[in-house]
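ESCALATION

Customer reports they have been waiting on this structure for their group meeting. Please prioritize. Original submission:
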Amino acid sequence: MKKLVAMALSLTLAVSMLTACGGTKETKAETSAETTAETSGETTAAADGESLKVALCVTGAVNDMGFCQSAYEGLVLLEEKYGAEIAYTENLQAADMAAAFTDYAANGYDIVIGHGFQFGDPALEVGAQYPDTTFICTEAAAASDNVASYVMSCEQGGYIEGMLAASMTKSNKIGFIGPIEGASLIKIMNGFEDGAKSINPDIEVQTAWTGSFTDTALAKEAAQAMIDSGVDFIAHDANECGNGAIAAAQEAGIYATGDSYDQHELAPETVLTSSMYNVPLVIESAYLDVVNGTFKGEVKYLGMAEGVVEMAPYYDMESAIPEDVRTMIDEKIEAIKSGEFVVPLDENIRK
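Update from on-call: job pushed to the front of the queue and completed.
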């Protein structure tokens, strides 16, 4: 039996509470943000005989069917498999990340996880003040004695999505939507373009940044503008915001791909596949590094070869994709896994 415990963070911040599937309502906490902690009375002790306290910080909602939900599922895995005492804070803005990290460290959390490239600097800042707390970042390039980063090679999934998009488009115009400009987001967008141009060097790849991780309306608007210009395949890496892009594709009757999570259920006849990040595996690996005393303050890169970047099944849409295209994509995935083919890594904005 799980119980929910509210822990007040000593900061004022804006939060977005998910009110309905595919939509958000912006609210502002007057004096504090509410953080949810989950504990279980029937759990297995950690390897050292004690359950560690682990906190997760994310920029969106933990039920976003995407990037943040995958991290939350990793947190829950630590509770259920190792008996960790867990807590999380969602919808964090960049200005509030250091304060959230500080509160968790001050309250005795052993491991604090920041899921996203934005958490790198806050982890280094707060990590210097709390040397006995371990800080884990995903998608950042931050490292110190008690700070490590686990970076997912998401450009690999982007490349495969680009190959699929270029193989399925009839207009030779495809689009990619991101939230804000950051290294981990730029590299998947560039990977998408590189994959598409490996199929058709002359293909037109349109890109857009919404400026938000959560506003589905912005992504839908950006996608619709692309569709109006002739784009007939949409991809995204925009957390919950990207769900709006899928909605626009569904309404227009064109294909799309999901990102970070298996997003097939959002639009079963629209989403051909999703580039998924096995974040639970990343979080479990980091946790065991701490428990087993093998933690190192370094940056680790994890991709298809490690089972961290994966492509979702085609489900009932398999018949919509020509067999030769599916075979080509399967062969490219195997080449990436074996190291025979290395997806170019480009974290620079392209004109």
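Sent to customer with the following note: The chain has nine helices and 16 strands.
Escalation resolved.
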